[in-house]
Amino acid sequence: MKTGLISRIQRYSTKDGPGLRSTVFMQQCNLRCQWCANPETLRSGFNVFWFKERCRQCGTCVQAAANNAITFAEPGQGVVIDRKRCTNLLDMVDACPYDAYEKVGKEMTSQALADLLLRDKTFYDESGGGVTFSGGEPALQAEFVTETAHILSAAGVHLCLDTAGNIRRDKLLPLVDAVDMVSYDFKAFDPEIHLTCTGVDNRLILENAKTIAATGKPILARMVIVPTRNDQPEDIRKRLEFIRSLGSAVQQVDILEYHIYGIGKYEKLDMPYLLNGIPPVQREMTEQIKQYAEDIGLKATIGG
To answer: Radical SAM core domain location, by residue (predicted)?
Structure first.
């Protein structure tokens, strides 16, 4: 039985595929999207949130931290954590009497995860929903996700894989085969824009999209629009035309408007947020993108 690392499970989701769904956010990602709303899923191991508002400056963590890596900040400002030097940060989760530290990530076997998800099978069945594996990048734990998918599929659960596609084909395709639908992210078409926005180019991503489409597996294409980053009209046009070239496998295109819902997580992880001051997407623009998508024969929606 395989073991995987889960970041969290979001129940009753309506944005990650058809019907009511449980979205399983897997730990670890091999992209570094500047607009990532789930920074806690980026690393391969456990993570720790620190909640400044809960800290009472009691000194427990200051005394317990290895290498003197946690020190007092100004009165009322909590503590300063040197995450690179603090080799026992996870210990603070249990040590802090005010719950200012919170562990992110849970190890589970595929059977345990499937059993937990099956508790909501009635909701999946009644709404035409199911389970979506997201992240992070779920394909980085492909064997675990595939084994879990087989258990759920045998129980009649609809499955969706939400992937950026930056995975070797021999790892990705068995996982694609185990699910009913693929939600595929198209962050840019131009490889240089993609590299700037995510830290990698998109040649493998686009080739994998073609391969998945050739299998006939239903694809839900997703396009996030981020002002000043990937909102160039020519690149958007090329993205949509590439998606159209994938043929009948594409069920629809979700045009997603950049948001800052995850910005508070960056502070809790002591990570810089690179897009401070970025303006919101204008609905007029996303309406125009949707219209162009429909003009070339794609079914399109606008989401947040």
So the answer is: 15-299
Q: What is d(CA 47, CA 166) in angstroms, rounded to the nearest whole number?
A: 23
Which residue is listed with tokens 């295109």? 253
pLDDT tens figures, 239-288: 999 999 999 999 999 999 998 888 999 999 999 999 999 998 999 999 99
Beta bridge partners of 79: 72
d(CA 59, CA 70): 9
Write out pLDDT tens, residues 149-171. 999 999 999 999 999 999 999 99
Q: What are phi and psi of 233, to 5 degrees?
A: -55, -40
φ, ψ of residue 279 in degrees (nearest 5): -70, 160
- As a whole number of Å, the end-to-end CA separation of the chain is 37
**Which pTM was predicted?**
0.94
Q: Rounded to whole angstroms, what are the CA distances from 170 to 142, 177, 207?
A: 10, 11, 13
Cis amide bond preceding 136, omega within 30: yes
Nearest to 132 by CA among 14, 223, 213, 235: 14
